[in-house]
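wait is this the right file?? whatever heres the structure
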């Protein structure tokens, strides 16, 4: 089932349940899908594109959340937290720290990486294999620890 179909089903359920937070988050996803479809590139959204789209939405909200918390705007921060939780429901299950560490170790062994000079090779393979189940910042931090 495509992301768009899942989103429409979830939106109907949220409307029936009168869940305002879910409606806001789901409508944001629906809007982003519509923008991606009509961006003029003529490309259809594949699964990797859908994951990237959802991750972008979560990252935007986390950035806003940090700003709101910094400025003491707890009312707006609460809204961002609710939307992040809703959007994350549509993302694949994230890897645990141990799973990610073992995957990165196998990539390091596979590429023969031994120093920080090889970080680019490891990051490239890691991003391909993880496919949205961990964010780049976490992967980068872990690779730096393992290579140093």
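ok assuming it is, sequence goes like this
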């Amino acid at each position: 089932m495509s992301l768009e179909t899942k989103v429409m089903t979830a939106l109907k359920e949220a409307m029936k349940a009168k869940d305002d937070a879910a409606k806001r988050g789901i409508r944001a996803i629906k809007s982003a899908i519509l923008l991606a479809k009509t961006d003029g590139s003529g490309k259809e959204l594949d699964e990797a594109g859908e994951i990237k789209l959802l991750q972008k939405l979560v990252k935007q909200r986390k950035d806003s959340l940090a700003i709101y918390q910094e400025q003491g705007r707890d009312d707006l921060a609460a809204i961002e937290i609710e939307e992040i939780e809703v959007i994350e429901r549509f993302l694949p299950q994230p890897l645990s720290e141990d799973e990610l560490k073992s995957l990165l170790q196998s990539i390091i062994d596979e590429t023969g990486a031994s120093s920080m000079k090889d970080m680019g090779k490891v990051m490239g393979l890691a991003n391909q294999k993880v496919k949205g189940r961990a964010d780049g910042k976490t992967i980068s931090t872990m690779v730096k620890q393992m290579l140093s």
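The chain has two domains: 3-88, 97-147. so i think its the right one actually
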